[in-house]
From TrEMBL:
Database matches in InterPro entries: SBF1/SBF2
Upper classification of the organism: Eukaryota, Metazoa, Chordata, Craniata, Vertebrata
Protein's name in the database: MTMR5 protein
SBF1/SBF2 domain mapped to chain residues: 65-197
Pfam family, one: SBF2
Amino acid sequence: ENPYPAVTMHKVQKPTEGCHLRLHQKPFPHLDEGTVQWIIDQATAKLQTAPPAVKAEKKCMVPSGPPIAAIMERNGNALANSARRLEVVRNCISYIFENKMLEAKKLFPAVLRAMKGRAARQCLTQELNLHVQQNRAVLDHQQFDFIIRMMNCCLQDCTAMDEHGIAAALLPLVTAFCRKLSPGITQFAYSCVQEHV
């Protein structure tokens, strides 16, 4: 093989055997205190006499940005997008509680993505709270699984700011939602989400 002539091949030689036993460290030279102080004084004097560095002002035209209407429209789109996400969260939760699992399964990935946003996390706690108030806290296994996955995703994306808001709002919910494992044995949601910080 002929490597390109431009490429330089560096050969790193292996250290000889027993080289670690030889002392080949040169002692650090002794610094003269007077010389060091003289160098420092010279540099300080130079800094004090030097004129302050001022950048030459360069005048230029700043191009005009997009019209204000376009900015408003962009924000409007963001708000509409946010509203759509909240609608997806609401729909998915209502499908879960109406036992329409196929529809809920279709929306589920979008809901988990929406949980990155604070508004969606708040929406989740509000919607689940409504269902608790309607005495719909005892779930079947599939419903329980969906709700737990949503709660876990919500808590996973929570920041320190959400600790006293969203995480606190979820606390009464995780002690309300449950499923019957067998006669006399009930599993509550907190048993599946208690690992979060």
